[in-house]
Amino acid sequence: MRFARATLCFALLATTATSACSLHLEQRDAVASRRRSYNNAFFWRHNTQFRTSGAIHFAHGKQHDVLQLGTLAHAAEIDRDFEAECLAWFRDPPRMEPTMMTYGPHVGQAAWRLYQAIDWTHIHHEQTYDILSDRDIPWSKKAEVTRDAVDYYLENLPRAARSPAPLELTMRRAMVMMKPYFGVYRNNHPRSATFFYYAHWWHPAIYEAQMLGGNGSEQDAIVDATHATSTEVLANRPQRMLLSREIMPRYSRMSPESANIFDNLHMLHGIAYAILAYDGWTIDEKRAELYRVVEAMSAQPGDRELARKFAIEHPDVDPRRYEPWMRGYEGPMNKMMEEMFEGMWPMMSPDGSKEVPPEVREQLKMKLSPATQPGELPGSLHDAVMKLVPNMKMDKEGMKPGATPKHAAMATKEWLDKAQGMPNVEPFPMTDGAAK
Questions:
Q1: pLDDT band at 33, cuts 50/70/90?
Q2: Is the dihedral of CA 246, 252, 256, 259 positive or negative?
Q3: Residues 6+ away with beta carbon under 8 Å from 343
Q4: Residues 6+ apart with CB under 8 A from 358
Q5: What is the Cα–Cα distance from 110 to 276, expressed in whole angstroms?
Q6: Where would a tag sit more exposed on the chain, N or C end, judged by fewer CB atoms within 10 A?
Q7: How far is CA 338 from CA 178, 190, 268, 355, in A?
Q8: How confident is the model over 355-371, as pLDDT tens digits?
Q9: Cα–Cα distance between 197 and 242 in angstroms, integer?
Q10: Is residue 386 a contact partner of residue 348, using CB atoms and an 8 Å limit?
Q11: Where are the domains positioned within the chain?
């Protein structure tokens, strides 16, 4: 009897394994911090902020499963409950940093490479916080040690590493604006989306607080004061994704590679959530699209030479202050998206005109904003534009899961040609003990 049971169990395991192999198999390489004397300096010096980062990463991990396992029909309830859980974790944050798999295991089993990219970049987050926290690293050496951490990040897991090039390039490679999921997450989960807009203010704000404080005790005071601003930011959240160059201009000049890596990660979060929130594809189709975007926004040859190709509008920002310009629609992220759409329009317009119609432009602005705005047409940006321009030329093949729209290559080349004439942002002088 025991032998029969064992044989049956083995047969079931073999059948399951064969079934799994026929569906999807991938190598799950582990990620780990580099061993350095500065490891855990952020944990010991700024433990409140370390734990807050852990709460944010809990939210990032769980959001994947919440969206995939939920439905758009119940989105309002799901959004409300998830936001409440995120805020509860913010009030009582975890003591350690969770990986994506800890609170989002369902999607992790289906799209491991997405989680690998996120976890690997979170490790880079931690180590760069550590470098600025470590009093034993002379201030004049911070840029050099950070550059070494960037080298390790890019060279040891290049497939998972986010690009050190600006979003202006990687978003053109990904080209997601006319995909059927674009706008679905922001429209249907506005509470969650704006919570992450807050989170993507918080991360660079803490870096900039460290930059302002230097190695001495002033760093502790400025970091705590910046963290205290969270109450104001959560109460009146940004309506767009804030970029590193906006909130941490000094750090972005000191390490443009890290600044761009974090922007590319934060944008990957938003795109992944839109894909998972969309209920028109199977999980296999979603994985194909997720992996396409992960690859498009990954570190690729030549990206590092483009790291300084961005401008800084607010070079003297104080992270302790939540400025009016941080709150609304206008900013480099949405400007970038509008420029991309304008570049695409002549290929989509029925008559080849270069001018985007005012009513289409207005729908684009609404789709780039959280929640459903008065006058906004339902569905994705594609759905809205098709209602306004029924005979619009569409790249039907490029809209399929895992397919790159045909205008991505041309848009990428146009930006690369433009970048040749762009000045590099100047390095930040790290010589006086603090970045005043």
A1: confident
A2: negative
A3: 407, 411, 414
A4: none
A5: 11
A6: N
A7: 13, 21, 18, 12
A8: 999 999 999 999 999 99
A9: 7
A10: no
A11: 34-331, 335-401
